[in-house]
Amino acid sequence: MIEVKNLHKGFNDVQVLKGITTTFEPGKTSLIIGQSGSGKTVFLKSLIGLHTPEEGTISYDGKLNIDFTLEQKREWRQEIGMVFQGSALFDSQTVQENVMFPLKMFTKQPEDEMLDRVNFVLQRVDLENSNFKLPAELSGGMQKRVAIARAIVMNPKYLFCDEPNSGLDPNTAILIDNLVQEITHEYQITTVINTHDMNSVMEIGEKIVFLKDGVKAWEGTKDDIFKTDNESVVKFVYSSKLFKKVREAYLNETK
Ligand SMILES: Nc1ncnc2c1ncn2[C@@H]1O[C@H](COP(=O)(O)OP(=O)(O)OP(=O)(O)O)[C@@H](O)[C@H]1O
User: Fold this and answer.
1) Where's the ABC transporter domain (predicted)?
2) Cα(56) to centroid(ligand 1), Å
3) How many other C-beta atoms lie within 10 A of the C-beta of residue 198?
4) Angle between the 111-124 and 95-106 helix axes, to the nearest 10 degrees?
5) How remote is the CA of residue 66 from the centroid of ligand 1, in Å?
6) Secondary structure (3-state) at 212
7) Which CATH superfamily is domain 2-221 in?
8) Do 189 and 222 touch, CB atoms closer than 8 A?
9) How far is the CA of 247 from the centre of ligand 1 (A)?
């Protein structure tokens, strides 16, 4: 469980995050949504320790990150998996080498144990016959699967995904969303996803945090988001005619 309390972060006197308080639970896919510039990336970067807040706290399973010793910080880093926008694979390395990278970096496991683990996660993301391919030989969806395999190879407690669906067609995006959700449930990971994709919100939004101008303007589940009359959420999520229709259909069905 990640608990965020009264988080403030700014740059050069410009306040970006203005007192965010929320929680992210294990075994749930939590989504951060909001307009461009609302502070989603700054928030995600704060959660993974790339930004230091001026005020407020973030705790991971009860441990405050500001209290971490250097050794605890190292351990905590190993409990984090990241899926970056655009996958961020090493172009000159094979799929196997990409996925093995965190194991080589952080563990002293023998090569055959590492290979077993790599094969296990590659199988989990349905990429068992791609060990020796280079990223350029894979489709965008397959690259994303490799990035997910690499993110879970260390068996993380926390998984952070930055725009995991960017550049993917809607079908592939849904497959990736479902894969991330399955893995989250299966291994009880605390997963936080930064997204613009309203399909993801409707599909896997077990918790949704809506940011507006650096403030948490709303939070709830994908079911709540259909019913809410919060003006800012309605304006943002239902700006598209399609989603407006989906919402009307949902509300009619549940009358
Ligand atoms: N390192 C930085 N230095 C100064 N300002 C920054 C820095 N990082 C972000 N900002 C500012 O913080 C604000 C929020 O940016 P952020 O990238 O978090 O928005 P976002 O919601 O992720 O937007 P998008 O959806 O377009 O990615 C912006 O005004 C941005 O210019």
Assistant:
1) 2-238
2) 19
3) 19
4) 130
5) 23
6) strand
7) P-loop containing nucleotide triphosphate hydrolases (3.40.50.300)
8) no
9) 30
Which DSSP letter does residue 178 get?
H
Question: pTM to 2 decimals?
Answer: 0.93
* pLDDT value, residue 119: 96
Q: Phi/psi of residue 115, each to 5°?
A: -65, -40
Residue with tokens 């589940």: 221
Q: Residue whose CA is closest, atom 12 of ligand 1?
A: 16
Question: What pLDDT is attached to residue 208?
Answer: 97
131 vs 93: CA distance, rounded Å: 10
Tell me the residue type at 23: T
The edge-to-edge listing of strands for the beta sheet with 2-11 is 14-24, 2-11, 55-60, 63-64
Is 11 near ligand 1, meaning CB less than 6 Å away?
yes
Ligand 1 pocket, residue 33 CB under 6 Å: no
CA of 46 to the centre of ligand 1 (A): 12
* Arithmetic mean of pLDDT, 193-222: 95
13 CB within 6 A, ligand 1: no
Among 175, 235, 170, smallest CA distance to 197 is for 170
Q: If you take atom 8 of ligand 1, which residue's CA is the nearest one?
A: 42
Enter the tokens of residue 208. Answer: 């949704």
- ipTM, 2 dp: 0.97
